[in-house]
Structure formats: structure tokens, C-alpha cells
Amino acid sequence: MTHAWIQNILFLVLLLALAVPLGPFIAKVMEGERTFLHPVLGPVERGFYRLMGISGEEDMGWKTYAWAITLFNLLGIAAVFLLQKIQAVPVLNPEAMVKVPTDLAFNTAVSFTTNTNWQAYGGETTLSYLTQMLGLTVQNFLSAATGIAVLVALIRGLVRRTADGIGNAWADLIRSTLYVLLPLSLVIALLLVSQGAIQNFSAYVHTASGQIIAMGPAASQVAIKMLGTNGGGFFNANSAHPFENPTAFSNLIHMLAIFVIPTALCLTFGRMVKDKRQGWALLAAMTVIFVGALAVTTWAEAKGNPGLKALPVDQVVSVQQGGGNMEGKEVRFGTGATSLFATITTAASCGAVNGQHDSFTPLGGLVPLWLIELGEVAFGGVGSGLYGMLMFALVGVFIGGLMVGRTPEYLGKKIEAFEMKMASIAILLPSAAILLGTAVAVLLPVATASVSNPGPHGFTQILYAFSSATQNNGSAFGGLSANIPFYNYGLALAMIVGRFGVIFPVLAIAGSLGSKKATPESLGTLPTHTPLFVGVLVSVVLLVGALTYLPALALGPIAEQLSLRGVTR
Amino acid sequence: MNLQLRPALVSFVALSILTGLAYPVLVAGLAKVIFPRQAAGSLLHKDGKVIGSELIGQSFTDPGHFWGRPSATSGPDGKPLPYNGGNSGGSNLASSNPDLKKAVEERIAILKAADVEQQGPVPVDLVTASGSGLDPHISPAAAAFQVHRVAKARGLDEATVRALVETRTEPPQFGVLGDACVNVLKLNMDLDGLR
To answer: What total of structural domains would you count in chain A?
Structure first.
């Protein structure tokens, strides 16, 4: 346990050290200022604009901005779908992968475009290298760029006064990809290869003894899968696979890559609103939720599986062994690095896994599930985490405003009926999709037939699937046989609702706030950079999450935990 | 609204070429120059043939070799095929699933039948399936548990085998990351090299 916590603290320190310079850098890039990368990438950016026939400076109203983002994402869905349908062509396809069935191809196309990366297929048994590169790797970049763009548009709405526009969507998408995602991915990919992650275009290796070893351009995709909080593995076992995540150090790189942009964006926010304390306050609220969640998972997994207590199995943590609940985990990581990874990947909307969440202890699995359901606002996805958290911040100042009887304000902007309606939609629509989707699934025999574990855990598998899809996480309780038309189409719908059901209200708020005048601060203004506000914000997130999901969680992991304790007594 | 059509199409195609072709090819090129062995899969050769990858575990079941962790991978026919590097994955059995308990009981019975003198509690990683099904490692405790069996089967001294295990034991990386582990394939190759 001590060993695990040294690792946890080291992670948080390194994360902060990396995010502090990155945050202001992203702000500069998104505001069009020059950076050290501009001598090389500036001409590329301008070349893009010339080909596109725009200047990159045209200001868009929120509806135009939303239309641009929608169009861009629709193209993504179409491209990934088509690539899967024509993948039998012998281009970068040494294993002669055949065309993907329509329901699965649709699910995968929506999944990667919405930054979910739910995978109803196994990479090494289903997809050609061309599909992985030109289809999935591309969407790993572009869905992350979409998240950053929408966030920056929202920040502009908060900053600008009586403005008509919230920025140019094309410039935002291109700048975040060129200056932030691409250079960082290149560095991360090479670091991963140095540890043993593979990057080649060879056919699968057949060893002298007949073992088949899958190959492929994995490292380049894995780098952006983590950095863009996408999470879709090149291989079926995702970050548990030794060719994606060969060592404990590569594992640290994976984890830092998930959190570094979401953390940095809080500081980007502080810089753009010209009050750094505002960014630190949001980061503090995220950290409180994250560390609390991490403590529970780390403890539950290190304690081991209560169901094996009666057998002659040694689960005790010692110098000689990592111990704990090792089903579905890798020895080189142990329960400590796996618990940390699981908490990070679900606090963010990443969904990559370095161990199988389905085999976690009931409490160890409850935490990732609940983090997803909270809306992944503790750090959260690239862009989506912070714009999600800002929705809760609006609810927070609204409740605070009601308490003292004044019009609620955030950063000098009045929060009125329209903003509250939109924020409520952004928070409640995903919740409804998760609970209603689960409810429909448990009523349909075709859906319940996919469940692989008996008892309350079987219910959790379905609940996890709809939570993960709706909140665009992508991790799974993988025993659920999700590759059937019901889940392929049902979960794709959930992903669309969870992605665009939040993006549109967020952009609407951005437009509405941007058109308002600033109200000068007064005695009655609730300051939003204080520990008091951090407390309010954490409470709002946890209360909404608890009120919405506790009944469902009681039927799943909580019931399972109680029944396991009953067995051992 | 159609004003956005051209920028959308052009940016999508250009960004696809940049991130979906240029970037992976660039990484592959750089990797091939800087880390050629790793990029190709850290493959191990013997007599000019590939015998495996040091990062991908293999199935060992004879008493004279160290055994790796149980693997839940399956073959193209859907039947169990441990350590199938063409189809990675875990068991996804829940903690509460009676099938998990049964599987663990069977594994304990097999381990103890292979060495009747070793009747202590079994290290947990030796009786639980790994996340990838390809875990190349076991814990030092799981290696120590098998020393007696391996030494006996090979007619070696326990101390010799224990010393080999020790040289193959990797501490947590940089002292803090992950857990200590032993690479089973490399350890077994050392053993075979003793003869």
C-alpha cells in the first residue's frame, strides 16, 4: 500500500510539473499567438487555410460554430465506416482482414468520432493496418481537437463582451491538432517504442513453436489514444497488452498522457479569463474528487478478492509479490499501478485499460463506474472534462446565488434562465440516456443474453456499458458480448446523445454569455476562486451523481459486495 | 451554411493524410532507426528462427520449466488457446463468479499435484489469468514457489535454480513503478542453457 501511494504521489507531482508549462502554451496557440513551433508549423497552418479558402480569422456565431463541428464529425463517421467496408483491399492489410459487418462498422465509426472508443471488436482479429491508421488514428486526433475547440469557444463566451462570435471552428480544430496533439504524440510514441511498444507494418509473426504474435503500427496510435483521452486499443487487450504497454515506465507515460492536457486546460482557462486563480480552483475541485476515488480503488484491489479468501491462495502484498486481486491484471503493473490507471482512465473520458475492469473487486469496479457516471469531470476528457465541469460550476453559482438571494454570476457574466436550461440539459440528458438505456436492455432477452457473469454483477455489466458509451469513456466490463446489433446500434445512439447532447448546449451557452455585458463585481458576488467555492463545486458534482445513480449502483456493485462478504463469513 | 462545406472537406482530407498516414509512417521510420529491435517486437532468435518475443509470454506445462500465469486467450475456433498472441484478452470473470473460484481451485490442484512436497499457499498471480493473456512475467514469489519442482525435474540443486531466478528478478522500475517481476521465457531459456 505504501509502495502504491509513493507511485500515486509521484504521478501527481509529475503531472503538475508537465501541465504548468503546457497550459499557457495551449492558450497561446488557441489565441493565435506565436510559439516556438510556429517557424516550422506556421506555414503548414497557413497552407491549410489557403486550401480551405478561409483566412482563419472569420468569427462564427455559436450556431455556425456548431454546424462546422457537426459537419466535421459527420465526415469522420462516414470515413471510418467506409474504410471498414472496403478494408478487404490489399493495402496495408497483410493479414487479409475482410469487410466489417454493418452494425459493428457503424458502432466503431460513431465510437471513434465521439471520442468514446468503445470497442465491440478485437483490433488484431478484425481491422487492417490501413483502417487502424487512416480511420481510427485520425479520429483519435480529430475527436480530441473537437473537445479542445468546444472548450475554447466556451471560454471565449465567458471572456468576450457583447460579442457576436465565439471564434473560428476551423482555426481551433487545426491549431489544436497541429501545435498540441501532433508534436506531443510524436514524442510519446517514440518514448513508448523505447520501452518495447511496436511500430511496424509486418505480417504477424509465426514462431518456430507455432505461436502467433500480432504486429502493426501500434505505438503511433497508442500515443494519441492516451493523449486525446480516446482509449481505443490497437490490440484487444488494450494497455494490458505488452506491445502497447511493455513496462511500468511506459505505463507511467500512458497515465501522464491521459491527464496532462485536461490538467493543462484548467491553466489555459485561468490564463484566458485573465484570472489564474479561477483555473486553480477548478483544478483543486477535480483533484479532491480524483484522490478520494483513487484511495478507494487502491485499497479495494490491494485487499484482494474476498471470494478467494477460503482457498490456499496468498493474496497478501509483500516484497516477493504484488499480491491483491490479480485476476485480469498484469504482474509488471500489479494492483497499485492498475488501480491508479483505472481511476485515471475513468476520471478522464479515456477508457483505455491496463487490466480488465470486469474482474475488479465489486468496490474497486464501482469507483470507475461512478466516475464515468459523474460525467468525467474530475480532469475529464480533453476539453470535454473542463466544459463539463464548467456546467457544474454554473449550477454551483446558481445554487449559491439562490442561497444569498442575488442573481448568480460567473466571471462577471449573469447566469440566467437560458444558461441554466442549457446546463441542465447538458447534465441531465446523459444521465437519462444511461438509466433509460440500461432499463431497456435489462427488459430485452436479446440484451441480457450477452451478460457473462451471474447475479448483480451481470446487471453491472449492462449499466457499465451504457454509462461508458454515453459519457464517451469506452472502457468496458468486457465479459458482456456487445457485438450484437442491439448493443452496436443502441450504444452508438447513446454515444451520440452523450457527445452532442452536451456539445450543443455548451456552445449555446458560449454564444449567449458572449453576447452579454460584464457586470462589475460587488459585495454580493460569490467569489469563484475560494476554497468555499471549491467545496460547493465538489458537493454539487457528488450530489448530482449520488442522487442520480445510487439506486442503480445499489442493484449492481453494492449488492455484489454485500453478497461476497456473506460468502466469506 | 454551405459556406462551411469546402473548409470541412478540405480540412478533413488534409488532416487525415497528416495524422493517418504521414504521422504513423514518420514514427515507424524514426523507430526503425533509433529502436529497431523494439519496433519489430523484441523478437528472440535461435538458429536463425524466431522463437518468440521477450515481451509475449508462452505456455509452459512441463515440470522442468517455470510456468507462467494462466491465460484466458482463445483460438480462431473460439476454443481455449493459452498465450495466443493473435487474440489477446482476459477472462473477464467477476470476483463473485463461482467459475473463477472453480478455475482457481483446479489450478491449485494441478500445481500441487506437480510437486507434492510444495503444499504452501499459492501466490495469487500463479492461479489467476492475466489481463492480456500474454503476461510475460510472474512474481518473484510465484517463481520461488516453483523452484523445488523445477530443480527436482532437472536433477539440479535448488540453490542453482534459485540463483537463476534471482538474476532474472526485475525490481520495480526506478524503485517505485509497478511491481517486481520475473520474465518466464528468459528464465526458462537460462535454464535450458545450463545443460
So the answer is: 1
Comparing CA positions, the residue from A438, A447, A430 lying closest to residue A496 is A430
In a domain, A185, yes or no: yes
Per-residue 3-state assignment (H helix, E strand, C coil) for A289-341: HHHHHHHHHHHHHHHCCHHHCCCCEECCCCCCCCCCCCCCCCCCCHHHHHHHH
Size of interface A-B (CB pairs under 8 A): 384
Query: Which of A199, A205, A324 shows the shortest C-beta gap to B39?
Result: A199
Residue B110, Cβ neighbours under 10 Å: how many? 13
- Whether A20 and chain B come into contact, CB under 8 Å, resolves to no
The minimal CB distance from B40 to the residues A200, A224, A236 is found for: A200
ipTM reported for the complex, 2 dp: 0.97
Bridge partner list, B173: B177
Which chain B residue has the Cα nearest residue A138?
B20
CA atoms of A222 and A228, how far apart (whole Å): 10
Residue A466 domain-assigned (yes or no): no
pLDDT tens string, chain B, 195 residues long: the values are 578 999 999 999 999 999 999 999 999 999 999 999 999 999 999 989 999 999 999 999 999 999 999 999 999 999 999 999 999 999 999 999 999 999 999 999 999 999 999 989 999 999 999 999 999 999 999 999 999 999 999 999 999 999 999 999 999 999 999 999 999 999 999 999 986
Contacts with B81 (C-beta within 8 Å, 6 or more apart), sequence order: B73, B74, B75, B87
Amino acid at A330: E
Does some domain include residue A370?
no
> Nearest CA of chain B to the CA of A453: how many Å?
6
Find, among A101, A533, A26, A567, the residue nearest to A309 by Cα: A567
Asked if residue A178 belongs to a domain, the reply is yes
| A328 with B104: Cβ contact below 8 A | no
What is the span of the domain harbouring residue A75? Answer: 2-275
Query: Distances in Å between the alpha carbon of A257 and those of A352, A361, B20, B184, B187?
Result: 11, 26, 20, 30, 33
Nearest to B86 among A214, A564, A567 (CB): A214
Q: Do B100 and A307 touch (CB under 8 A)?
A: yes
